[in-house]
Amino acid sequence: MSKPAAEFTPLNIAVLCVSDSRTLEEDSSGQYLADSLVEAGHHLADRQLITDDIYHIRAFISGWIADPNVHAVITTGGTGFFIRDSMPEAVSVLFDKSIDGFGEMFRLLSKDDIGMSTIQSRAIAGMANGTGIFCLPGSTGACRTGWNDILKEQFDNRTRPCNFVAHFMRANPGHD
The whole model's pTM is what? Predict the structure, then answer.
């Protein structure tokens, strides 16, 4: 006898755009992520745009990490090599555990779109206080790759053999 299919569990996801040149109204990558997560059945917990400053980034993300109602944070921008690109340095110190496979898989997938330029991507992810933090580059194309090819599936509790939902819900998942 097979197990009945699990019901979809919506997550509360915050979106942070880091940019020194855009406004919230001009933030197509953050808007793409917000629209996509809602379309997938999740809740937009918050959406902000701040300048690329290590301490502002840490403050915003720390607030979401401390909020038990925020399950995941997706950031866009600040992952490059320009002088003000500081997302990895800002968030990596907050991680309890890093999710190394996220950056590796993002670069593998984005190679199809941008070729070897993908080596300049410093996309990273980790867990802090049960909250997932996923840092994507600032282009809408990069956010599309990150959401459609990685996050959408991993934020769906019906994805087998595993997904991140049980970790975000701070539950110890049973294994089939």
Answer: 0.93
Residues 6+ apart with CB under 8 A from 10: 41, 42, 43
Is the Cβ–Cβ distance between 145 and 34 less than 8 Å? Answer: no
3-state secondary structure of 75: strand
112 burial level (CB within 10 Å; 0-12, 13-18, 19+):
exposed
Distance between first and last Cα of the chain: 13
pLDDT in tens, the chain (176 residues): 556 568 999 999 999 999 988 889 999 999 999 999 999 999 999 999 999 999 999 999 999 999 999 999 999 998 888 888 899 999 999 999 999 999 999 999 999 888 888 888 899 999 999 999 999 999 999 999 999 999 999 999 999 999 999 999 876 555 44
CA atoms of 161 and 19, how far apart (whole Å): 36
